[in-house]
Write a structure and sequence with these properties.
Elements lengths: L1 H13 L6 H11 L5 H17 L3 H14 L9 H43 L4 H8 L9 E8 L9 H14 L5 E5 L2 E7 L3 H14 L4 E4 L3 E2 H22 L5 E3 L5 H6 L2 H12 L10 H12 L4 H8 L3 H15 L6 H17 L7
Parallel strand pairs: 4-6
Antiparallel strand pairs: 1-3, 1-4, 1-5, 2-3
Helix pairs in contact: 1-4, 2-5, 3-5, 4-5, 7-8, 11-15, 12-13, 12-15, 13-14
Length: about 350
């Protein structure tokens, strides 16, 4: 009965948008003519107003059908075909106006959502106002949140299949857990409560697969609206570090890479270290890059010569010879624990600064 009462209430609300319909129906049916442009425009306007008022399209159609039946035109020249043709034109124009208003509302909502996302991720407006608007999108910024960012071989927009696929899977798994999934600058972005890391872990798995092996970075949990900005920037910086250091891990966490921002905070000091420690390698036959690659492989393999040689497709003897050349040229021995730290830090700095391809 509740459903019937609701339907009845909806139909009654729709009566307000029947203005002039019975007269249009009678006049058009009497001659069999099509509705005039003014008559069609009046129906479209009523459809727009009904949509803006929240009246359901189904209720509008039912109200028009009821009026057509109860006020069925009579008189010379009136036929069932002429009545139904006029009714069809009127209802079609009404639905066109209704749908036009809905499309406009959707575009306005999309624009408002995009503005909120830009403000949220870049901190462009008053953070208190951002926090107020966040409730509308399911976020409670008084609590901690973390942000994960995924990049793939292509740039993505919110309406693309990849974001929709990831969003469906997230909602199917976690339901309404105050998750915001969006896109920004062609990347997938997921904002989730900081105490629910399983959401970001699942997002990373989904995004890696959906983007054909794309890379995902996860920022640290931070409180408030400013914390979302900070976590987002950490994730972006982590992706940038991964590219410069050629890290190919599918998922990277900013908390695990905090040493790198520390190393790059004083760029001049890092450049001085690279120049002082590694610039002599430029004088080697073949230049600095092959020997720099040797040091990178050696350190990344835990200073195990056999593993480093395998990575470089060299014999252990050839690798050992290269390490000895580095020792002779730079004066720093990669096998010595004290020298090793300086060399490894300089190698990381060279990769971050793009040396030797880029001047220091």
């Amino acid at each position: 009965m509740a459903g019937t009462a609701a339907d009845r209430a909806g139909t009654e609300a729709a009566q307000a948008y029947l203005d002039g319909y019975a007269g249009i129906l009678a006049d058009a049916a009497a001659t069999g003519r099509r509705l005039t442009r003014e008559e069609l425009d009046s129906r479209r306007v009523l459809g727009e107003r009904a949509a803006e008022a929240g009246v359901k399209l189904r209720a509008l159609v039912v109200a028009h059908l009821d009026t057509t039946r109860t006020d069925w035109p009579a008189g010379p020249g009136v036929t069932p075909d002429s009545v139904l043709a006029a009714a069809t034109q009127a209802v079609d124009a009404l639905a066109e106006g209704y749908e036009r208003a809905q499309r406009l509302a959707v575009r306005q909502e999309e624009a408002a959502r995009r503005e909120f996302i830009d403000d949220l991720l870049y901190g462009r407006s008053d953070l208190g106002r951002v926090a107020e608007r966040a409730e509308r999108y399911g976020l409670r910024l008084a609590y901690e949140h973390a942000v994960a960012v995924a990049r793939g071989p292509a740039a993505y927009d919110e309406g693309d299949p990849v974001p929709r696929e990831v969003e469906r899977a997230l909602i199917g798994r976690f339901g309404d857990r105050r998750i915001l999934l969006t896109t920004k600058d062609g990347r997938l972005v997921c904002v989730a409560p900081g105490d629910q890391q399983e959401i970001l872990t699942f997002f990373a798995k989904l995004a890696h697969a959906a983007t054909d092996g794309g890379q995902v970075a996860v920022g640290r949990s931070q409180p408030g609206a400013a914390g979302v900005v900070q976590s987002y920037e950490e994730a972006l910086n982590t992706l940038d570090l991964a590219e410069r250091l050629e890290l190919d891990d599918p998922v990277l966490r900013a908390a695990d890479l905090l040493v790198y921002p520390v190393l790059t905070r004083d760029r001049q000091a890092m450049a001085d270290l690279v120049a002082t420690t590694l610039s002599p390698l430029r004088e080697a036959r073949g230049g600095a890059q092959p020997l720099l690659d040797t040091l990178t492989a050696y350190f990344e393999s835990g200073c195990v010569a056999a593993e480093a040689a395998r990575r470089l497709s060299l014999s252990v003897r050839a690798l050992t010879y290269r390490l000895e050349r580095i020792h002779r040229i730079t004066g720093a021995d990669p096998s010595d624990p004290v020298h090793r730290y300086t060399l490894q830090t300089a190698v990381i700095g060279a990769r971050l600064l793009g040396w030797p391809a880029n001047p220091l």
